[in-house]
Design brief:
With about 300 residues, the chain is an alpha+beta fold. It folds into 2 domains: about 110 residues, D-amino Acid Aminotransferase, Chain A, domain 1; about 160 residues, D-amino Acid Aminotransferase, Chain A, domain 2, CATH 3.20.10. Strands 7, 8, 9, 10, 11, 12, 13, 14 and 15 form a 9-stranded mixed beta sheet that branches. A hairpin with a 3-residue loop joins β13 and β14. The structure holds pyridoxal-5'-phosphate.
């Protein structure tokens, strides 16, 4: 795989209030966020130059920082404006925006009362997260042995960098076995989500999704639930156990990066890309580009 390293690209990055050359957007190795995981972030997409649910992402970033007890002096208007400016100056139309906030180098140790919060915003052109073949047939998930922690163990509703170490280990293990991503169970053994996307399932025409009580209630998840309601698709937020997975006719995942992505396989069980997945995927693709839902979608 040939990758362009993320620290060696052209463009500008918004860094603590200023747009600076991409390669100069650096932090010191003795940064609290790096050592102790005091770091929160957002991942969002722009379509035709417009950031989808821009303010909702800015609000969530501030909320994640608050959940992590981090000072956060930027209001949503300021973050929105910074994201839009960064996108415009970099000339990105269909892209991905990454805002990240972290505790700095002012203090090193578990206690970090003297640290300042820093904020950076980068963006780049990013087509689909998965290949066209995966889009057509669905991605494969392998159940991880790592579990999503309980709400009294970790700040599970924050989009906190530290929570992703479980995701990275799980995804690597899945990839080693030839799967695209991991299916995460929670601390009770209930089906939770993928490593960077929420999960939906269809049973007898009813759309089901796990209750987001120990993982991120994704903005895409909320958008898709709204679309399902608009279409009159019966919908239920419910407990899904691993043994329920055999009953479902369709599975898909949702996320700002993944968008609406069909799942073709979980462990040994295969699924086809069914009508509800297709309908919601198309409706989502239209919505993010500001196109109205058409009769064909419904
Ligand atoms: C762990 C996890 N769950 C769910 C989601 C989906 O959230 P959203 O739809 O807000 O991007 C993401 C992506 O941000 C994620 O990283």
């Amino acid at each position: 795989m040939s990758l362009i390293p993320f620290d060696d690209r052209d463009g500008v990055i918004w860094f603590d209030g200023k747009l600076i050359p991409w390669r100069d957007a650096k932090i010191h190795v003795l940064t609290h966020g790096l050592h102790y995981g005091s770091c929160v972030f957002e991942g969002e997409r722009s379509y035709d130059g417009q950031i989808f649910r821009c303010t909702d992402h800015s609000v969530r970033l501030a909320k994640s920082a608050a959940l992590m007890d981090m000072e956060f002096p930027w209001g949503p208007e300021k973050i929105d404006a910074a994201k839009k400016e960064t996108l415009r100056v970099n000339n990105i139309v269909d892209g991905y925006i990454r805002a990240v906030a972290w505790r700095g180098s002012e203090q090193m140790g578990v206690s970090a009362q003297a640290t300042k919060t820093h904020l950076a915003i980068a963006c780049w052109t990013w087509p689909s997260y998965f290949s066209p073949e995966k889009r057509e047939n669905g991605i494969s998930l392998r159940t991880s042995h790592w579990r999503k922690p309980s709400p009294d163990t970790a700040p599970v509703h924050a989009k906190a960098a530290g929570l992703y170490m479980i995701g990275t280990m799980s995804k690597h293990a899945a990839e080693k076995d030839g799967f695209d991503d991991a299916l995460m169970l929670d601390y009770r053994g209930q089906v939770a989500e993928a490593t960077g996307a929420n999960l939906f399932a269809v049973e007898n025409g009813v759309l089901k999704t796990p209750i987001p009580d120990c993982f991120l209630n994704g903005l895409t998840r909320q958008t898709v639930i709204g679309l399902a309601k608009d279409f009159g698709i019966p919908f239920e937020e419910t407990v899904i156990m691993p043994e329920d997975l055999g009953k479902f006719s369709e599975i898909f995942v949702t996320g700002s990066a993944a968008e609406v992505m069909a799942v073709g396989r979980i462990d040994q069980k295969t699924y086809t890309v069914g009508p509800i997945t297709r309908k919601l995927r198309l409706a989502y693709e239209n919505l993010v580009r500001g196109k109205p839902l058409t009769a064909g979608d419904a």
